[in-house]
Design brief:
The chain is built from twelve helices and eleven strands.
Length: 369
């Protein structure tokens, strides 16, 4: 898909992308705010040989095992015995210990031990890391005589929490909102009916019905054909928003209502009939080989079908129904301006509060006046 096409899809469906983006970002901010901050503090210890009276071979043998022994010391640092001793040293309560986390690891490629404590309290995290380091050194130095453990860098009180990571959470919220919003816009584009995708120049972009230019072109063709074949062609103009029946709908809902109305019209006419949106809420239908009486019957059926379903809900919660009014005219050679006659019939149909179907032949005016 070209970037220009993607940009058009996103901008044309901004009303879908923007709320999803805002909601996703707001959710990320909300989760960040309610998440309890956690602080981490680390102390570093060094493992070194403590023997001075061994012969050379013994020292070399001990040094070859230094990494293995250092790893053992790291495991001792995270043991229950050492942690309980550190907690006792600090007089910690069960509540304090419940929110404490400890990690004791051997720094890869070295003989350094790193003790990391995590707690909602930055001071407690530093104190606990140092207390565990002291208890580990005391335990090792009293039980092992070959290698000793000594403090290298004590833990200091951290100023910034390690969780939540505010920049990361916001970046994920922005990225997630964009991906979700654009993804749904693409899905909406893909599920859009594509039957007339190659007819963009002759299709109304809001309702996907044919536009007024194509209607005029096809009407001229059918009028020429009627002249040659001496058959009649009927034209109907239907205003689906008589008495402003759909005006209380929100703009997007009203557009969707007109789209559904266009679909209903197109699905209930004959394959050879042409349905187009001419302007506003007025649709036109060209019905080849149809006289006025037959056209009135067809349009009456269409009006009843359009008036039945609710096309949305007003701000007051009232279902909105279309109130179609229609004008019908029959074209024969020499019968005059067919569109002017159809407009006259439509105006007559809209004179009352309830829409109806008006045939041009029933009007008091005469053709051409």
């Amino acid at each position: 898909m070209e970037l220009r096409t993607l940009f058009h899809i996103v901008t044309s469906r901004w009303w879908l992308v923007l709320p999803i983006f805002v909601l996703t970002l707001a959710a990320a901010i909300g989760l960040t705010i309610v998440q309890q901050p956690l602080y981490s503090a680390s102390s570093t210890l060094v493992v070194a040989p403590s023997v001075t009276d061994q012969n050379t071979l013994d020292v070399i043998g001990l040094l070859s095992r230094q990494s293995e022994i250092s790893d053992t010391y790291a495991q001792i640092g995270s043991s229950r015995t050492v942690q309980e001793a550190a907690a006792k040293q600090l007089n910690l309560t069960d509540a304090d210990k419940a929110h404490l986390d400890l990690e004791s690891v051997l720094v890869s490629g070295t003989t350094l031990l790193q003790i990391t404590a995590t707690s909602p309290s930055n001071k407690l995290a530093a104190d606990y890391a140092n207390a565990v380091s002291q208890q580990l050194a005391s335990y090792v130095n009293s039980h092992y005589g070959v290698f000793s453990v000594s403090a290298l860098d004590p833990a200091t009180t951290p100023n910034r929490p390690v969780e939540p990571d505010v920049p990361l959470n916001l970046a994920l919220g922005v990225a997630g909102g964009l991906v979700l919003g654009i993804g749904l816009a693409l899905v909406a584009h893909l599920v859009q009916p594509q039957a007339r995708a190659g007819l963009r120049d002759i299709v109304d972009p809001e309702t996907w019905a044919f536009n007024d230019s194509y209607f005029a072109y096809r009407l001229a063709q059918e009028m020429n054909r009627s002249t040659r074949s001496r058959q009649t062609t009927a034209v109907a103009l239907i205003d689906v928003n008589h008495e402003n029946a759909l005006d209380d709908l929100m703009p997007r809902v009203r557009t969707e209502a007109l789209r559904r109305i266009a679909t209903l019209l197109d699905s209930h006419v004959r394959p050879e009939d042409i349905v187009a949106r001419l302007y506003g809420s007025v649709f036109g239908i060209v019905m080849p080989d149809t006289n006025e009486e037959q056209a009135v019957a067809i349009v009456e059926g269409l009006r009843s079908r359009l008036a039945a379903p609710a096309f949305g809900t007003t701000a007051n919660g009232v279902p909105a129904h279309a109130n179609p009014a229609a004008g019908v005219v029959e074209y024969r050679e020499g019968s005059g301006d067919v569109m002017q006659h159809a407009q006259s019939a439509l105006r007559a149909a809209k004179e009352g509060p309830i829409g109806r179907t008006e045939a041009f032949s029933a009007l008091s005016v005469q053709p051409g006046t």
